[in-house]
Amino acid sequence: GCKVLAVYKDGTQVDSAEAGDDVLIVLDKTPFYAEMGGQTGDAGTLVNGSSIVKISDCFKLKASVFSHVGHIAEGSVSTGDVFTAEVDVERRRAIERNHSATHIMHKALRDVLGAHVAQKGSLVNEHVTRFDFAHDKPLTAEQIRAVEDQVNAEILADTAVQCRVLPIEEARKTGAVMLFGEKYGETVRVLNIGSSCEFCGGTHLDNTAKAGPFRIKSEGSVASGVRRIEATVGRLSLDTMN
Questions:
Q1: Do residues 134 and 225 make contact, with C-beta atoms less than 8 angstroms apart?
Q2: Which helix (H) or strand (E) holds 227?
Q3: CB 163: neighbour CB atoms within 10 A?
Q4: Is 162 exposed, middle or buried (0-12, 13-18, 19+ CB in 10 A)?
């Protein structure tokens, strides 16, 4: 189980909180992914024999310290309590589909538009992948179709996703794309997803085919020299098809 190290209510640390309270809970360990690098935090539940806490988000307070945004549905939560942490698996899988597709799309954009394409921001949740990148003019219909076609071809290629944890200097030699502005430690995770190779600490599929159909919903300008694409994969893409 996971032990409660601290409980916060209304921004103040408390010894305990009761049913109906909105709280932040710090655990000694957690299976929840904390929001970072554009990927939204996990949701789920904390349960034990007497209490249920609905978790809607998780974020990093500092290195190896994670805070869980929760609503106490039943019982109470006190420092020292032990809970079983259950991640919302269906939501996590949807996030993974979007995140893995984002990597493949980044590579496709570089292939279609040129090596000047660089990530300027992203948001990955269960509903959408939103990707901001350096480019100085709108994409043509042909370019959008070319990106979609390349991403879907790599998804249909049914290739295993490779994840390696490497020392930073060794990782650089792989040619993996490093994201500008990100802080990297002595070791990094290198993700090979289709033809994409990037540094990333997020959660991903184990096979490209699990992403399902990829569709670009919109493309537009968000700042001078920066474009934004919103896209969907999996069931969300199917829901938009006629």
A1: yes
A2: strand 226-232
A3: 13
A4: exposed
